[in-house]
């Protein structure tokens, strides 16, 4: 199930705030389907969807496996509310935006430091989660430093006695890692930013990475959700 949370039918057009109860309702709905195996759910998210997936695993019950694709370790873009508590959004500095000659913007260095003391409330408490984690990392991500955030999350988990997460490093892959055979997209209009953003990656490496990461994601979910691993995509 692909869950929309903005700009779809009656959902808000802008991300001003999000409520985790909405995602909890979807989790419960999915768990009740007769074709869904009992014993835990798998969640995958890319970019903003990745930190939402981390928050679901950290605060909601029944999540056994999480795949974060080019995610951040902090809550991004808007406050996240749950049961009377709120997690603020990590701030950013617009003066670090780079404008290319083509008019496309590069925002790789814009996020503030998630580990800075003043941003502690934005950090997703993944050490609370009971899930296994797979961090998929495009090493030419031009939206933010996905590998740095993954390393920080690894330390966060290990230092709290949790199992070390799996990392899948993909050289030459950009931010917008989609399923295999989706067209390579180095830059496009981003509705959250309201302008054209650079995603990164080069065609050959990025396309190969999309095949590789999709295969490993499928295996990871089968391994951690009680399925049988098969060799084909």
From TrEMBL:
Residues 19-226 form the BAAT/Acyl-CoA thioester hydrolase C-terminal domain. Signal peptide: none annotated. Coiled coil: none annotated. GO terms for biological process: acyl-CoA metabolic process; fatty acid metabolic process. InterPro entries: AB_hydrolase_fold, BAAT_C. One of its GO terms (molecular function) is fatty acyl-CoA hydrolase activity. This is BAAT/Acyl-CoA thioester hydrolase C-terminal domain-containing protein. It comes from Synaphobranchus kaupii.
